[in-house]
Design a protein that fits this description.
The complex is a heterodimer of chains A (144) and B (433). By secondary structure, chain A is α+β, with helices and mostly antiparallel strands. Chain A has 4 helices and 7 strands. The longest helix of chain A is centred in the first third of the chain and has 11 residues. Helix content of chain B is 31%, strand content 24%. In chain B, the strands form 6 sheets. A 6-stranded mixed β-sheet of chain B has the order 5-4-6-7-8-9, sandwiched between helices. In chain B, strands 1, 11, 12, 13 and 16 form a 5-stranded mixed β-sheet that branches. A 4-stranded mixed β-sheet of chain B has the order 21-20-19-22. Chains A and B meet through β1, β3 and β4 of A and α12 and β21 of B.
């Protein structure tokens, strides 16, 4: 299916909320020469989930699991935003009108453009909505 | 009033021993005849009722332990039929099944009499208002004290536990003179009262605390007495003995174990030999008159010593000193007994978490706070925080149901908790009592 190329595998890592845990994850990725393209930390009471887009997700999964971390793959999509006021609104409006719920999201602003990474309740519907609404999705091959 | 029942409480030693022997002999014959459970135990030990020829022959009898009640859940160990029971109480057991205890009318009468004697011995009587801030319901604390206090003509204020501000208002408005609760809950009441601008010492009529259901030290007693301006008395019991049962007298030098109701032994936990007065060992209690659920040589697991001298108050019954520890890993959280084995058993019913765990206990303010750390299984790990929160809530909910006490759960990384070879040390107790 054509849409599939827009589905990006994010790695999610369970982490206790205490000093040194992020360093342990980052060190492991460095050792495998895995580059982190975007990441975020979600925190709850006492624990957190580190989410990252990396260039070699399978290798990252194996490495982190191997040293004892709880790791999962999660499907996300990346949308290019205009790096101007209203850039986020444009994307959020398309998804809202398509009745697609954003479960979580994080963003980075690069040289070319700003990128919004989204975890949504219905990935296929989101891809269709964004494409039909005039948005630009980034292909997973750009990352991985 | 000095004694509730002077004939018994001041009975000469020789007469007490004769009475105890007669009661023991009757009890053993009755159990051998009517309790299949204890009959088999005696046969296994090769003991016959005819072998009991002196009080000291009690040491020939087999022990009972808490798991005997669980293994015979709910009432297979009872000697009375259901139609002869007038009450049940239920406490959490060591694993899985709770412990059910039953009472005949005579059992309730003896329990009430034991507390009537104890309450009078620490200076309560007609004219006093006793606020019972132990839990009412399946737990024995509330109803036990309630009946004992009514028997001596004191006025009972059955507040049960919780809603502390209202407890303090009622304490003031109804002129409570005595309170029965855990020592840590009384400290909590003192702290909440101060926040409300109420001094227990100056603004209430409180003069006596009947405190138990959890271990406490002489230091804590002194602190409570000096801060709140009351006398603090230790009360002791477990549901297997009936409930809260034995209370300190005004001498404050150990709780009197009424010898017509119970026979105390302090044993060397290693050899099982009886230890002399003053030496610390494992307390073993035989209930001499219980009908529905007789307890013979019951190993409660508490470590303490006893004193056999006639008390300064004139009572001739032995005194047992403050409990100093446990022979096992049982914890007491807000007055409720918690065994790490119960936690292990409960965690096995939750597929999302592993069976390894650590317990951290501390005091937050005056109240116990228990944290259980569990590992999230790899298969159960979800990227969504809400899923993880739901796992945590589920574990908290199940532990609360199994233990009857609120528990905080922390999810930790798999493999991060210590693994034990041999005897596990899963408890970190930071409380200073």
């Amino acid at each position: 299916m054509e849409q599939k190329k827009y589905v990006i595998r994010q790695i999610s890592v369970f982490s206790e909320n205490k000093p040194g845990r992020l360093a342990a994850i980052a060190k492991a990725l460095q050792e495998e020469e895995i580059n982190i393209l975007a990441f975020s930390i979600a925190e709850a009471d006492g624990f957190g989930v580190v989410r990252a887009l990396v260039d070699k997700p399978k290798k990252a999964y194996e490495k982190l699991s191997g040293i004892g971390f709880n790791v999962a793959f999660t499907d996300v999509i990346a949308v290019q935003m205009k790096d101007i006021p209203g850039g986020l609104y444009e994307i959020a409006r398309i998804l809202g009108e398509g009745k697609i719920n954003i479960e979580y999201s994080y963003a980075y602003s690069g040289k070319e453009a700003a990128v919004l990474i989204l975890r949504v309740d219905n990935v296929e519907a989101a891809i269709s909505a964004i494409r039909n609404g005039g948005g630009t999705l980034l292909e997973s091959s750009m990352f991985q | 009033m000095k004694c509730w029942d002077p004939r018994i409480e001041e009975m000469p030693r020789e007469d007490i021993r004769r009475l105890q022997y007669r009661l023991l002999k009757t009890l053993v014959y009755r159990l051998y005849s009517f309790s299949p459970f204890y009959h088999d135990r005696m046969r296994e030990e090769g003991v016959h009722p005819d072998d009991i020829r002196a009080l000291s022959d009690i040491r020939k009898l087999p022990f009972m332990v808490k798991s005997d009640l669980r293994d015979n859940y709910p009432d297979k160990i009872f000697v009375a039929g259901q139609e002869d029971l007038v009450r049940y109480h239920v406490s959490s057991g060591t694993t899985g099944k709770p412990t059910v205890v039953g009472y005949t009318q005579n059992d309730l009468n003896n329990w009430t009499a034991s507390l009537a004697r104890g309450l009078v011995s620490c200076g309560l009587g007609r004219g006093d208002v006793l606020q019972v801030s132990y839990g009412y319901g399946l737990f024995t604390g509330g109803l036990g004290l309630h009946y004992g206090a009514e028997r001596i003509g004191a006025t009972v204020l059955p507040t049960s536990v919780g809603n502390t501000e209202r407890q303090i208002e009622l304490m003031q408005d109804l002129h409570t003179t005595a309170i029965a609760c855990t020592p840590s809950y009384l400290l909590h009441i003192g702290e909440v009262a101060e926040k409300m601008g109420v001094s227990i010492r100056d603004d209430t009529s409180l003069r006596i605390g009947i405190l138990g259901a959890e271990p406490w030290s002489d230091n804590m007693k002194t602190r409570i007495e000096e801060w709140l301006g009351i006398r603090a008395y230790d009360i002791y019991g477990t549901s297997e003995l009936s409930g809260p049962m034995f209370c300190e007298c005004t001498e404050q030098n150990g709780f009197h174990v009424w010898a017509d109701l119970a026979y105390v032994e302090i044993l060397d936990p290693e050899t099982g030999e009886q230890l002399p007065p003053g030496e610390q060992g494992e307390m073993v209690i035989t209930m001499l008159q219980k009908e529905a659920l007789p307890m013979i040589r019951f190993r409660i697991g508490d470590v303490t010593s006893y004193d056999d001298e006639v008390c300064g108050c004139g009572r001739t019954h032995p005194r047992v000193h403050r409990i100093s520890g446990r022979v096992d890993d049982m914890l007491i959280i807000r007055g409720i007994n918690v065994f790490p084995s119960q936690i292990e058993y409960t965690l096995m019913t939750v597929p999302e978490v592993g069976q390894h765990f650590m317990i951290e206990v501390d005091r937050k303010g005056a109240l116990d706070d228990m944290l259980v750390k569990v590992e999230v299984r790899r298969e159960a790990f979800s990227d969504k925080i809400t899923d993880l929160m739901a796992i945590r809530r589920n574990v908290e909910h199940r532990l609360r149901n199994a233990l009857n006490v609120a528990v905080n759960v922390e999810l930790v990384e798999p493999g991060s908790l210590p693994r034990f070879e041999g005897k596990a040390k899963r408890v970190i107790d930071k409380r200073k009592i």
